[in-house]
Amino acid sequence: METDELIAALAADDTAPKRPRLVWRLLPGAVVSVILMALFWGVRPDWGQAVQNLPVLTKQGLPVVLLLLAALLLRQGAPGRKPMLGLFAGIAGAVALAWGIAVLRGGDIMGQSAWQCLLSIPVLALPMAVPLFWGLRHRVEPQPARTGMVAGLFAGAAGAAIYALHCDEDSAAFFLLWYGLGIAACGVAGRIAGARLLGV
To answer: pTM of the prediction?
Structure first.
């Protein structure tokens, strides 16, 4: 078979390449993050009771919503991501608006653990980010920087959800700001890593 014929045959074969499912790559990292949180941060003693209150439920649930949305973005091809990215931007705008309202109502912005929160989220995200990026290297990514950003946002949101099990700062003005900054920092780091590690 001529080289040109071989290339044409490969191009015509639309069978998806076999690759490990990303979810199985993420599970060990998630377990590591939970163990780290339990050992070095500790679960909030009254979490079971506190999560019944709306602010705490929001603090725990919002990162989960974001990571599910990021997971959907990662599953879609590049052409189908634009509408979902618009939805992601809409959620970010709604969070910013809610934060502004919370501040105007006199919510505590700094709390007692702002820097701990800002640093802890990326640390807890890292055990999930590493296997996630490793798995994404098996895919052909026409927009590696954008894919890396979404992967970083996924890991950051997962890290925030795990950190929320420890955090006792229940002011919306606090957690919307510092959780948001922690997740955004993971997204920026993911974009940089994606541009360097992922691609066609």
So the answer is: 0.83
